[in-house]
Amino acid sequence: MTTIVAADLAAYSRLMAIDEEGVVSRMSAVWADVVDPLIENAGGRVVKTMGDGFLAEFSSPVEAVRASLAIQDAMADRDAERPEDERLCFRMGIHVGDVVAVDDDILGDAVNVAARLETISPVGGLCLSRTARDQVKNRLDITLKPTGELRVKNLPEPIEAWVLGQGSIVQLVSSIEILPVVVVMPFDEIGSEDEFFADGVVDEITNALSRVGEISVIARQSAFSFKGRVVDVRAVGRELGARYVVTGAIRRSGKRVRLSVQLASAITGANLWSQRYDDDLEDLFDLQDRIASHVVGAVSPSIRASEIAAARAVSPMDRKAHQLYMSAFPHFWAHRREENERAIELLSSAMALDLGDFRSQALRAWAYAQQATYMWSETPLVSRRKAQEDAEAALLLAGDHATSLVAIAAALGMTGLDHERSGQLLEHALELDPNSAWGWMRLGWNHVYREEVKTGLAAFDRAEELSPRDPFLFNIHFGRGYAYGQIGEFENAIRLVKLGLTAGPGVTWAYRDLASFCANADRREEADEAVAALMRSYPGLTIKRVIDSMPPATHSRHHGFLEGLRRAGVPDA
Question: Is 231 found in the same domain as 141?
Answer without folding.
Answer: no
